[in-house]
Amino acid sequence: QFTDPAQWIRFTTTIFDIIQKFPDLTYFKDINERRQDNEIREHIKKQTARIFTAEYRQELVNDSSNKTERQIEETFQ
After folding, report:
1. Boundaries of domain holding 43
2. What superkingdom heads the lineage (predicted)?
3. Residue 67: is its pLDDT beyond 80?
4. Does residue 16 belong to any structural domain of this protein?
5. What is the helix (H) or strand (E) element at residue 69, kind and residue range?
6. Stretch (H or E) spanning 73
7. What predicted TM-score, i.e. pTM, was given to this entire model?
8. Distance between CA atoms of residues 38 and 72, nearest Å
9. CB–CB of 28/22 below 8 Å?
10. What HEC string does 7-65 produce?
11. Is residue 49 part of a domain?
């Protein structure tokens, strides 16, 4: 959604330029896929940071330090 007319004009100009250079729109699709990939990566990064705080990570390390590999795997299942 565009609320800024100047932004809308810049966006449409960019699309028009891309269509002229790449009539099959593969370039625009690649840009969109890259943007979506970046959004997904950022979401995962934020969620991981939210769930695995420094305190929680330290707690996991402390709890796991005297366990076998199998016991650690069972913790996460």
Report:
1. 23-75
2. Eukaryota
3. yes
4. no
5. helix 69-75
6. helix 69-75
7. 0.48
8. 32
9. yes
10. HHHHHHHHHHHHHHHCCCCHHHHHHHHHHHHHHHHHHHHHHHHHHCCHHHHHHHHHHHC
11. yes
